[in-house]
Write a structure and sequence with these properties.
With 203 residues, the protein is an all-alpha fold. Helices cover 77% and strands 0% of the residues. This is TetR/AcrR family transcriptional regulator.
Length: 203
């Protein structure tokens, strides 16, 4: 419990004051643990960072799976509503504390070689597992070549919106983007199905 409290506190610090300003003392204070307890679990700042990165890696995959569960039912026809729901969940996903904290670490790793060395293999593994998870939660897309580019389109667009500083009419603008993206994904899906059926009938 103490370890988890420390990792959650580190996430909070990243979000509230940024990676550069986060010290082990501040993390311990946010976690409500003594300096000794902090040092017992994590003897150095980088040991905390490594643990938080691993923690976020698992947490982000778990949260994505929970958000996308039961949106695309394999025994039912895929509808516009299903696709829009998945885009809305993707937007919710990039607004979760875990995403914000991870992006803070990712941004900091650009100029921090030690942090970058830890982040790079985790990021590669996450991308691999993330795509595999998308295949499992979207069975209608599973065997379509369009899955990966469609997945990238959603993730890149959602991340871009989440990281942008839209200060005016933010909710209305986000809604329009979600609406447009859902329509585009439906078109991509329909075209992919038609193309596959055409290929199968030509054999």
């Amino acid at each position: 419990m103490t370890r988890t409290a420390i990792l959650d506190a580190a996430m909070t610090c990243f979000i509230e004051i940024g990676y550069a300003n986060t010290t082990t003392a501040l993390i311990a204070n946010h976690a409500g643990v003594s300096r000794g307890a902090m040092m017992h679990h994590f003897p150095s700042r980088m040991s905390v960072m490594k643990a938080v990165i691993a923690y976020l890696h698992e947490l982000r995959l778990k949260e994505y799976l929970e958000l996308m569960a039961d949106i695309d039912m394999p025994d039912a026809q895929l509808t516009n509503k299903d696709i829009r729901n998945s885009v809305e969940m993707a937007w919710n996903y990039v607004n979760m504390p875990s995403f914000i904290a991870y992006q803070e670490l990712l941004g900091a790793s650009r100029t921090d070689p030690e942090l970058k060395a830890v982040m790079e293999p985790v990021e590669k593994d996450f991308e691999k597992q993330f795509l595999q998870m998308a295949k499992s939660v979207f069975p209608h897309w599973q065997k379509l070549p369009a899955l990966e580019p469609a997945h990238d389109l959603v993730q890149f667009l959602m991340k871009g919106m989440a990281l942008s500083q839209m200060s005016t009419r933010r909710n209305a603008r986000v809604k329009k983007v979600i609406d447009y993206l859902a329509l585009i994904l439906m078109e991509i899906y329909d075209e992919s199905i038609e193309s596959r059926l055409g290929d199968e009938s030509a054999k």
